[in-house]
Amino acid sequence: MTEQPPPGSYVGTKGESPSDQVGLRNKLRAWWKHLPELHRAAISIGLAILIAIGLFFIDHSLAYAVLVCTALSWIRRLPPIPWKLAAPSTFS
Description:
Blueprint: H1 24-34, H2 37-56, H3 60-75, H4 80-86
């Protein structure tokens, strides 16, 4: 006779994950993945600009470095033509 796992246990679910998110980090990750791509882009670009403004008062070059790194990381998410083609030329 095989033993049944206790209720609330996920033993023997064959890779299925629980439907509820446990912990703040997992809840925030699920919320982030649930947002549309445009909202995620706006939030991450806005945070980068806020960090750059804060760093501008400490050192101007740090703010420029944050903005350039953010722009370079966003190039890979652009549509191929014409935006991804034209974006690197702005750094020349």
